[in-house]
Amino acid sequence: MQLEKYSFGVGDRFGRQGKAQLQALIAAKAEGVDIAAVWNKSWREHSIIGSSPIDTYKAAALAVKALKCQDSFYVDADHIQLSNVDLFLDSSNFFTIDVAASIGQSANEEIINAFVSKYRKYAGRLEIAGIDEVLNIDENQIEAIARKYLKAIDEAAFIYLHIESVKGKGNFITEISMDETDAPQKPVELFFILAAAAQRGIPVQTIAPKFSGVFLKGVDYIGDVAIFTKEFEQDLAIVAYAVKEFGLPENLKISIHSGSDKFSLYKPIGRSIKKFDAGLHIKTAGTTWLEELTALAEADKTGLSIAKRIYADAFERLDELCEPYQKVVEIDKDKLPAPAVVKKWSSGDFVQTVRHDLTCSQYNKNVRQLLHIAYKIAAEMGSEFTDCLEHHQEFIGPKVTDNLYNRHIRPIFIE
């Protein structure tokens, strides 16, 4: 099974927007750009909502059937670890193996020494096409990288082999995720991480490093775009070199997690992948939930009331909601309006505060981040919330499609 050159991580918290999301990819195809749909939902999200991995598959299959789509589609076991991978084996054909927690846990000394011995040939001046400067690497640096990452790659290999024992070789897509950690992986580190993956026999097709700058849930990139662009292009060059050097899958590509709403990066990313003729996988699922919520607030009084209640509960439960997302949210509670204030808002006030429009003076990234992680509260409402979604689906769906197609897909892949 081989993932297409471009792929887009869709999916939504409540499994109601499959057709709307797929229509965005169909619109891209009409523009001559093929982008594979990858429905992703992590165990973290399933456990918070009370859904199961098979629900994601059913929602994806239903959307594909309804739109008579003949293209391949994938269901991603997102951010899985050994403790929960078995729950996804029947329903998924794409596995994002998250080993961020193992970074920094040192491997066996014998394994480290063997790795350094094998790859010390890259010490010195390494020139890679697409990277302007020469990479100066010394043996101590190789050893430090081995100490930091080999344990994580060994864990990825162990999980990969477990999946392979059930699914069969070549019957699923493998991604390695290292993004939810404290420090970014520099291009030289990525080079030796890929070497380790190849050595351990992992046919990795996408890899999700942590980049410089800050990637928070549902808001724009925080950092120097020029620095990100340089690093991203160096990573693309590293991937292309590593494929040939280590015999990794030819379609290996970079994956960008927490990719929704990184509007300042989309055009630089688009230019870079075209420059290198590189593939890209980008995950944007969380933005769909916020489109649902703002659309409900815009639809009628009932929808606005539900949206306000979700905010009020989220305000009181801030610490609880942030706990699973500590590395990918930064909320300044002092800049959150009190629920009593929000209760008086009009529909326009709510939408303009939450919708990601940096030109709008009312936009509040703290409110948006809080609501991004507040889907747990919507889930606790049960049928009251989901029935409201169903009732307003004809209003919500086009907004989901427009958000993905015009604000996410076009700047990266088309414009």
What would you note in describing this structure?
By secondary structure, this protein is of the alpha/beta class. It folds into 2 domains: 6-286, TIM Barrel, CATH 3.20.20; 289-404, no CATH class. 52% of the residues lie in helices and 11% in strands. It has 17 helices and 10 strands. An 8-stranded parallel β-barrel has the order 1-2-3-4-7-8-9-10, surrounded by 5 helices. It has a two-stranded antiparallel ribbon with strand order 5-6. Strand 8 (206-208), helix 7 (225-246) and strand 9 form a beta-alpha-beta unit. Helix 1 runs parallel beside helix 17 and helix 5 packs across helix 6. The longest helix is centred in the middle third of the chain and has 29 residues, at 139-167.
How do the helices and strands follow one another from N- to C-terminus? EHEHHEEHEEHEHEHEHEHHHHHHHHH
Domain tally: 2
Counting DSSP E segments of at least 2 residues, the number of strands comes to 10
**What's the tally of helices?**
17
> Which strand order do you get reading across the main beta sheet?
1-2-3-4-7-8-9-10
- Oligomeric state of the chains in view: single chain
Quote the CATH topology of the largest domain: TIM Barrel
Strand content: 5-15%
CATH domain class name of the largest domain: Alpha Beta
